[in-house]
């Protein structure tokens, strides 16, 4: 599939044959909002590789991925055994693994949606990590079967959404293709060592409570939240430095105006930006995105 993707996966919206001109502009506008740049270099920028290795943001997300992978790798593998040791039959234990994973699926979709809408991925990861931590503490510290099963729900609802929010956070924090690619490489080199630990902390001789596995998973899940707090603090500090140097990001000129004023400004923009045939030309992606959103909200 990698060979097929090389020939058919477009490298930029401009080269996507299946997009119209308007759709390509919208895609570029979204790229501007994400990382501030839409131009694709088409090759490796070697100095960006070095700068990414020296960037603490890449290492924050890498160790967050490692920490979450400790539980992410072990919970699906050992959950049927854990449920059996709670007193359920083998068949019932297999069936009882489905509800926690289904809940985590729903929360994963909801959490990434909320994080994208609010642009607060750090708070989202912190919340999910706290939920997962509470779940592991219940599994480790409580003997009641019902409460421990509740802990399974909380652990799954914390771990899986955390992974789903950490991965895009890597790409959001790097400003070029080379930096994003290097960030993903660092993420996987460090993060994929997490399963080496996670799959070796639930030895059979520690059943039925698996104290070591539960407490280690709890500690690393909580550590993910602290790393998310650290990364968010770093990003706030860097953004303040950029604002002091370049000034805060200015809103689009049409934001905040009443609908009639917006429509008037849009018509003036179209009248000044059209080709010989009278077709409107929208040259800058941010304006394109604003106009598309305005059109959708005003019919």
Give the averaged pLDDT, no decimals. Answer: 82
**Helix-strand string:** HHHHHHHHHHHHH
Rg calc:
24 Å
Strand composition percent? under 5%
Largest sheet: none
What is the number of helices?
13
Give me the count of strands: 0
SSE blueprint:
Layout: H1 2-8, H2 21-35, H3 46-53, H4 56-85, H5 90-96, H6 98-118, H7 121-141, H8 145-172, H9 177-191, H10 194-198, H11 211-246, H12 259-272, H13 285-298
Helix pairs in contact: 2-13, 3-9, 4-5, 4-8, 4-9, 4-11, 6-7, 6-8, 7-8, 7-11, 8-9
Task: Explain what this protein looks like in three dimensions.
This protein has 299 residues and is mainly alpha-helical. The chain has helices spanning 2-8, 21-35, 46-53, 56-85, 90-96, 98-118, 121-141, 145-172, 177-191, 194-198, 211-246, 259-272, 285-298. The longest helix is centred in the C-terminal third of the chain and has 36 residues, at 211-246. It is elongated. The mean pLDDT is 82.
Can you describe this structure in just a few lines?
With 299 residues, this protein is an all-alpha fold.
Feature tags:
74% helix; elongated; 299 residues; 13 helices; mainly alpha
């Amino acid at each position: 599939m990698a060979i097929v993707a090389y020939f058919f996966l477009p490298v930029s919206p401009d080269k996507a044959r299946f997009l119209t001109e308007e759709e390509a502009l919208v895609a570029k506008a979204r790229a501007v909002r994400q990382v501030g740049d839409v131009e694709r270099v088409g090759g490796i920028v070697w100095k960006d590789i070095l700068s990414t290795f020296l960037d603490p943001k890449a290492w924050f997300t890498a160790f967050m991925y490692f920490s979450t992978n400790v539980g992410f790798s072990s919970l699906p593998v050992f959950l049927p055994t854990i449920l059996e040791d709670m007193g359920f039959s083998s068949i019932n234990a297999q069936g009882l693994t489905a509800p926690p994973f289904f809940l985590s699926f729903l929360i994963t979709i909801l959490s990434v949606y909320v994080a994208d809408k609010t642009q607060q991925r750090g708070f989202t990861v912190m919340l999910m990590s706290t939920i997962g931590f509470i779940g592991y503490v219940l599994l480790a510290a409580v003997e009641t079967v019902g409460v421990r099963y509740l802990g399974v729900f909380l652990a799954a609802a914390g771990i899986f959404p955390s992974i789903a929010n950490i991965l895009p956070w890597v790409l959001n924090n790097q400003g070029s293709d080379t930096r994003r690619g290097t960030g993903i490489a660092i993420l996987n080199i460090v993060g994929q060592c997490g399963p080496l630990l996670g799959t070796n902390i639930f030895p059979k001789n520690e059943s039925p409570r698996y104290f070591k596995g539960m407490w280690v998973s709890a500690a690393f899940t909580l550590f993910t939240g602290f790393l998310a707090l650290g990364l968010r603090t770093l990003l706030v500090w860097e953004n303040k430095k950029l604002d002091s140097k370049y000034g805060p990001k200015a809103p689009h000129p049409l934001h905040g105006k009443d609908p009639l004023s917006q429509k008037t400004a849009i018509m003036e923009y179209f009248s000044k930006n059209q080709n010989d045939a009278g077709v409107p030309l929208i040259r800058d992606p941010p304006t394109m995105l604003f106009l598309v959103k305005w059109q959708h909200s005003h019919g």
